[in-house]
């Protein structure tokens, strides 16, 4: 215990001395530092902060030191997370390689693959994209058709992937491909790593309802991929895919801590817009009860996360709690977004109105964007099917 207290003190001191003041502000989408060959920094402080965290291995705190990670135990990483939160430090690096692909590669990759890819992820040198979904394979992912033919020393890839987040800005993509078209659906799939600089790969941005271009349709036209880029066994990519989805859902359940947030505390916002009586109580009873419900659910989510973490640490079964986390936290985030807009009233109805404050315009954008969180990484309906089957043992 004493050593943990000492560790906490060291972390706090280090953060105090190394996190520039400007990097202790709530994160803004345009100021996130994404990994990549073309990585860029919006200001000197963000570069400094990124480099200091990278050199400590704290961009990936629990990953082994031999691959550049921080080598922290889960308890130490939790302390780091808590201290960063207490000081308001921004995440130093963004990349789905860090959140999803890296952990799966540490589990399933060969030593050669880990040595090639993990240090680059820790150092933010390569930006990764996810090539799972296809035009006819989303919830029913195993229906995917992108073909990888065995050509002796390499695979030849043909097909298309959908909804590739930031595909046009990514350097590499991890993909599920069909290597045996005659095997039962889940058994003919392999997990391949593809360098997007290869000839024949093309990620084309698609325009979204809010005018952003966050997704791509990615095409593979006779793309050659060396055999060493196969992760896991041939035709057993489904095992790797499932492990990675577990990390993706974990990431989705903590999404609210890494994405842009509304400015300030929701209770304070409610007081400002709705008004209070002489004893400081919100005058609008409907907002008051919705706000209470939200605060209780958010607290329950937080405690469930802590309970889950403590159970995992002791090697206990979570009794299905882990399966529910993504569903609960993304649904609660959407309820909060709805509540914020109703609190703001007319001022919460536009995202490009120059007469409104930046925070008001952003609230609408966040509300629209966060709809995606109950789709990405497996829709809520699919999550509920899984919870029904695996946690509650209900019939299919
Ligand atoms: C923000 C965001 C980022 C994404 N990024 C990526 C990415 O980088 N790479 C990638 O590969 N994919 C990505 N996706 C795609 C995502 O994985 C799919 O959108 C998701 O799996 C759902 O598939 P679909 O869109 O084809 O919908 P469908 O599978 O066509 O589903 C349509 C509707 O039917 C419902 N439904 C389907 N089957 C069932 C069932 N058995 N029981 C009950 N209801 C059902 C669904 O819940 C949904 O409401 C992203 C999606 C979003 C929103």
Outline the structure in words.
- The chain is built from eleven helices and eight strands.
- It has 396 residues and is α+β, with helices and mostly antiparallel strands.
- The protein folds into three domains: 2-94, Butyryl-Coa Dehydrogenase, subunit A, domain 1; 128-241, Butyryl-CoA Dehydrogenase, subunit A, domain 2; 261-391, Butyryl-CoA Dehydrogenase, subunit A, domain 3 (Up-down Bundle), CATH 1.20.140.10.
- The chain binds flavin-adenine dinucleotide.
- Flavin-adenine dinucleotide (FAD) binds next to strand 1, strand 3 and helix 11.
How many structural units, i.e. domains? 3
Architecture of the largest domain, according to CATH? Up-down Bundle
User: Strand count, sense and closure of the main sheet?
Assistant: 4 strands, mixed
Bound molecules: flavin-adenine dinucleotide
CATH superfamily of the largest domain: Butyryl-CoA Dehydrogenase, subunit A, domain 3
Within the CATH hierarchy, at the fold level, what is the topology of the largest domain? Answer: Butyryl-CoA Dehydrogenase, subunit A, domain 3
Strand order across the largest sheet? 1-4-5-8
- Unreliable stretches (pLDDT < 50, length at least 5) are none
Query: How much is the average pLDDT?
Result: 92
Dominant shape: globular
N-to-C CA distance: 47 Å
- Compute the number of strand runs: 8
Strand content: 5-15%
Summarize the amount of helix as a percent range: 40-55%
Which sequence of SSEs, written as H and E, runs from N to C?
HHHHHEEEEEEEEHHHHHH
Tell me the number of helical segments per DSSP (H or I, 4 or more residues long): 11
Category by helix and strand content: alpha+beta
Radius of gyration: 22 Å
CATH class of the largest domain: Mainly Alpha
